[in-house]
Amino acid sequence: MAFIALFVAVDAIGNVPIFISFVEGTTKKQRNKIVRDSVTTATVLAIVFMFVGKVVLRFIGVTIPDFQIAGGTLLFFIALRLLMPASSKELGGDSHDRDLGVFPLGTPLITGPAVLTTTLMMVDAYRIAPTFVALFANMLIVWITLAKADSLLKWMGPGGMRAIAKIMYILLAAIGVMMVRKGLVAIITGTS
Fold first, then answer.
1. Domain that holds residue 26
2. Which of 77, 84, 85, 87 is the most exposed place for a label (fewest CB within 10 A)?
3. Strand spans (E) along the chain
4. What CA–CA distance (Å, rounded) separates 128 from 173?
C-alpha cells in the first residue's frame, strides 16, 4: 500500500510530458544530468523529510492532522491546476536560466507536497523501513521513466501520455480529498 500511495503521489509517468517540454533543445549529456539532479534532489528531500518532518512540524506547533489538511488541500489544487490546459508549462516558468534538475523537476514536481505528506502518512501507517523501500522503488521508476522519456513518448504517443497524466492528476485530487477527510476525522475524534 505504501508503494501505491507514493506511486500516485510521485506520478512518474505523468511527469514525462512536463520533463520533455522542459528539456526540449538540450543535448543528451545535459538531459542525463537533469535526470540525475532531479531524482537525487527529489530522493534526498523526501528522505530528509521522512526523518525530520514530524520534528519540524512539532517545533512549529503543527500536528499531523493539520499537515494532512493543508497538504490535502494543496494536493487538490495542484491536481486541479495540472488538469487545466497549458498549466504544466507555467509550473516551470522560464526554464532556461534555472537548474531544471533541482527546480522545478526535483521539487516540486517529483517531490512536492504530495510526496512529503504521503511519506509522513506512510511512516505512521507502515513505519520507516517499508516507507523507505517504497520511496526508493518509486524514485527508481522515476529515474527509468525520465531516462527513457523519448522512447516512452514514442511508444504511447502524446495522446496516451496526456491521458495517463490526466488519470494520475484525478487520483492525486482524490488523495488530497482523502487526506483532508482523515485530518478532519482525527481532529474531530481527538486522535491527533
1. 2-189
2. 85
3. none
4. 25
**Cα–Cα nearest to 144, from 26, 21, 38, 30:** 38
- Are 109 and 75 spatial neighbours (Cβ–Cβ below 8 Å)? no
- How many domains, the chain? 1
- Digit-by-digit pLDDT tens for the chain (192 residues) are 789 989 988 989 878 877 887 787 788 899 999 999 999 999 999 999 999 998 998 899 988 788 888 878 887 887 788 788 655 545 544 444 458 889 878 987 899 877 888 898 899 889 999 999 999 999 999 999 999 988 877 888 878 877 877 787 787 788 778 888 988 998 999 876
Residues 46, 183, 88, 96: is their CA dihedral positive or negative?
A: negative
Q: Identify the residue whose cell numbers are 499531523.
A: 64
CA angle, corner 117, sides to 102 and 143, nearest 5? 40
How far apart (Å, rounded) are the C-alpha atoms in residues 23 and 17? 10
